[in-house]
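Milestone M4 deliverable, item 7.
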Amino acid sequence: MLKVMLDFTRTMLLFPAHWVVWVGLLFAANFAAPLFFITLPEGQVVLAAFMAAATAQMAIFARLGFVRLLGAAHFFWIPLVFWLWARLEAAAPQSALRYWVVAVIAMNSLSLLIDVMDVLRFARGEREPVLVLKPTGKG
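Output delivered:
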């Protein structure tokens, strides 16, 4: 599994810089930031949704490579976004929690729009890997 994760990351880093930054921001919002709120339900649920999506992506990547179907793994974010929206009023105005929840809702919603387009393109026949990791020559 570690090799799959490393190959996934190395492949993703082949994307243009703006996509790498975008994925980095999603990672920060959905994996790193929840650790600051881990004692709260929001932190726990966001982290769990991220881990579930990441596990699904690694399974797809291991089987098919870096294909447009990878976006389907973010289906865990659909209920997450609605749940966070419903919880938003529980967060104090101008609190770090509220700013983070709003950021996760906005970023994950935009990511889901991109993912839907990618999955539709996959369903319409664009099934070749978007990126292919070149061998490093190391065993």
